[in-house]
């Protein structure tokens, strides 16, 4: 096996300070980027901390006790997050996903959910509010999250075998606790629940069929994610990626599948249904099949930087505007100018370019901007 190289450079300092354009750009809900893509989905990272050390995301060698996590004063407050989110919604965002780090580690996250649940889309509808979690605190928190206005949760789970799971989260966390968290979320009405499994060839690909069998017929939608070259610390190698087509083939041989229509434009998962009607699975092929053409997602980091792509190497810092004396109209104009200048399509370019070439440098970590 070739040696992994894990660079230790802090990417977070690479920032463009967002500025207010000289002519105001009033929100119409119809904002488009330079490739004509609308803004529909906002992912908000509420903490850069996590109680897991998944090797593909926050490897222990880098995220150790000396890692410089953001101080509390650097994090956007719930009021600041909600104010920024309100401007995004005015530009057409319909869906907000809270993520991290581990979002359930952020104290009183229910209060933020309550504030976001009060926002309305341009059409006057409630937002679709969801959250991605490692499930470790879900059993304790599911009912309160539902009461605050959360509609659904996505739980990350990379295997059912306790030994495999403990070694993938690298903090010896037992799988049974996450499974109880999923049950609690179901009981609280946070469904339909999605379970995300990152497949790493040679590490947990033997868990694909047990996972499919376990969740079949339960109403939980299991989704297989190709292991991605996000960030700069996970020592990613293409030979550890298991293409989604192979995952589908593997399941289909044992549990016949039929392809389903996509649920919405910009939806990242390709959907497959069990031929006997026992539910569906999804595959997210971020490596082998680019879906940049429909990508309508913006990401807001814990400290208020907007990232236009999961593979971006710099963010647009809104904090000086948020903490300065910018009005809501100025903040909305700044966000519009950022989105209008967007041309990111990393996954489409990945195949034809050498590593990092399309983004021109070190990429931001997934634990900093969320999935
Ligand atoms: N801590 C939460 C969790 O694990 O669900 C939320 C944040 S985590 C960064 C969001 C998602 O990103 C998880 O589903 C995780 O499996 C996925 N992820 C992280 N690193 C990844 C990688 N290198 N390739 C594919 N997915 C990854
Ligand atoms: Fe934590 Fe989620 Fe990253 Fe795992 S994937 S280390 S649970 S943030
Ligand atoms: Fe969107 Fe970037 Fe992913 Fe393409 S690579 S789908 S632009 S986040």
Q: Could you give a quick summary of the protein structure above?
A:
With 371 residues, the chain is an alpha/beta fold.
Layout of secondary structure:
Elements: E1 15-17, E2 41-45, H1 78-90, E3 95-99, H2 109-117, E4 128-133, H3 138-148, E5 152-156, H4 162-169, H5 175-188, E6 194-199, H6 208-215, E7 221-226, H7 244-254, E8 257-259, E9 270-274, E10 280-284, E11 297-300, E12 305-307, E13 315-317, H8 319-323, H9 328-340, H10 346-350, H11 366-369
Helix pairs in contact: 1-2, 1-9, 2-3, 3-5
Residues 50, 56-57, 99-100, 102, 132-134, 156, 196, 198, 225, 227-228, 230, 234, 366-367, 370-371 line the site of S-adenosylmethionine.
The percent range for helix content is 25-40%
Radius of gyration based on Cα positions = 20 Å
> Could you spell the SSE succession in H and E letters?
EEHEHEHEHHEHEHEEEEEEHHHH
The second-level CATH architecture is Alpha-Beta Barrel
Number-wise, the strands total 13
What is the name of the CATH superfamily?
Aldolase class I
The chain-level mean pLDDT equals: 91
Structural class: alpha/beta
CATH T-level topology: TIM Barrel
Named once each, the bound ligands are: S-adenosylmethionine, iron/sulfur cluster
Strand order of the largest sheet: 1-13-12-11-2-3-4-5-6-7-10-9-8
**What is the total number of structural domains?**
1
Low-confidence stretches: 1-9, 356-360
CATH class assignment: Alpha Beta
Shape: globular
Main sheet record:
13 strands, mixed
N- to C-terminal separation? 28 Å
Strand content: 15-25%
Number of helices: 11
């Amino acid at each position: 096996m070739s040696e992994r190289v894990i660079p230790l450079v802090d990417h977070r300092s690479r920032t463009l300070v967002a500025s207010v354009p000289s002519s105001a750009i009033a929100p119409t809900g119809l904002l488009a980027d330079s490739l004509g893509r609308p803004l529909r989905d906002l992912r908000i990272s509420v903490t850069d901390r996590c109680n897991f050390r998944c090797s593909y995301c926050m490897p222990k060698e880098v995220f150790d006790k000396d890692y410089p996590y953001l101080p509390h004063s650097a994090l956007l407050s719930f009021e600041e997050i909600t104010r920024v989110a309100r401007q995004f919604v005015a530009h057409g965002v319909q869906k907000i996903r809270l993520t991290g780090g581990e979002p359930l580690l952020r104290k009183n996250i229910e209060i933020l959910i309550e504030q976001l649940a009060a926002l309305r889309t341009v059409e006057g509808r409630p937002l679709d509010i969801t959250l991605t979690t490692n499930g470790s605190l879900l059993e304790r928190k599911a009912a309160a999250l539902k009461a605050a206005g959360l509609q659904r949760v996505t739980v990350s789970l990379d295997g059912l075998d306790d030994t495999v799971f403990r070694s993938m989260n690298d903090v010896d966390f037992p799988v049974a606790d996450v499974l109880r968290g999923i049950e609690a979320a179901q009981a609280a009405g946070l469904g339909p629940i999605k379970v995300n499994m990152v497949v790493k060839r040679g590490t947990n690909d033997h868990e694909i069929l047990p996972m499919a069998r376990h969740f079949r017929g339960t109403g939980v939608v299991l989704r297989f994610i190709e292991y991605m070259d996000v960030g700069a610390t996970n020592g990613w190698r293409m030979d550890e990626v298991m293409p989604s087509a192979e995952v589908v083939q593997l399941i289909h041989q044992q549990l016949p599948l039929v392809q389903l229509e996509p649920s919405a434009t910009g939806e990242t998962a390709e959907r497959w249904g069990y031929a006997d009607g026992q539910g569906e699975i999804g595959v997210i092929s971020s490596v082998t099949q680019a879906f940049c053409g429909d990508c309508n997602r913006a990401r807001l980091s814990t400290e208020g930087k907007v990232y236009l792509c999961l593979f971006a190497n710099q963010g647009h810092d809104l904090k000086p505007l948020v903490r300065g004396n910018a009005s809501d109209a100025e903040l909305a104009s700044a966000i519009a100018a950022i989105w209008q200048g967007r041309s990111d399509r990393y996954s489409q370019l990945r195949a034809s370019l050498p590593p990092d070439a399309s983004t021109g440098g070190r990429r931001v970590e997934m634990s900093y901007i969320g999935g």
